[in-house]
Specification:
The protein has about 170 residues and is an alpha+beta fold. It is about 40% helix and about 15% strand. The longest helix has 18 residues, at about 5-20.
């Protein structure tokens, strides 16, 4: 991906907002966001505060993204909550007290939202995926080709699962 990190975020955000438009969600991707009053920019709930070019709708964060760059490419991942209780995330994060956890949940609901909250009905996973796929194809002016993982990729995934993600020592290391 050409350009710096913020430029790639900007271009990806254009595709994301176009995908949301296809779902009839009016969304924004600002180059910078002010921090809501009383918000800790280092808060444990990352979905609470939008970063540069993250997607907001109705003044609340709707899509969170992160990017990692390595010599061979760029990994962009993100989260678009279609429906559900956003505060569930606070149940698995560490807080000093139950009051701190409850306060974080309230802040989260004040600053983040779901597609269902905006539309009044939750879009299906399939419709959301198709809308985003079309928007990305338009943005990059290319087609996505569906393929199966290679044997080497499957083997690597199995090793990672066994050594890391299904291993309590790694999962509960914090």
């Amino acid at each position: 991906m050409t350009g710096g990190i913020l430029e790639s975020y900007r271009r990806i955000s254009l595709a994301l907002t176009r995908g949301l438009e296809k779902l009839e969600i009016k969304a924004n991707a600002e180059s910078q966001y002010g921090k809501p009053e009383g918000t800790n920019p280092y808060a444990a709930v990352c979905f609470e505060v939008p970063s540069n070019y993250e997607i907001t709708a109705d003044g609340k964060k709707l899509i969170g993204s992160a990017q990692a760059r390595r010599s061979l490419g760029v990994l962009q991942h993100g989260s678009l909550p279609l429906f559900g209780d956003l505060t569930r995330i606070t149940e698995v994060l560490k807080f000093e007290t139950l009051d701190d956890r409850a306060a974080a949940a309230r802040r989260l609901l004040n600053h983040a939202t779901t597609a269902e909250t905006i539309l009044g009905v939750a879009p299906t996973w399939k419709s959301a995926a198709e809308s985003l796929k079309q928007a990305f194809q338009e943005q990059i002016q290319g087609d996505f080709v569906e393929s199966q993982p290679s044997l080497a990729e499957i083997e690597r995934a199995q090793i990672l699962e066994a050594e890391k993600y299904a291993n309590p020592d790694w999962t509960y290391r914090i």
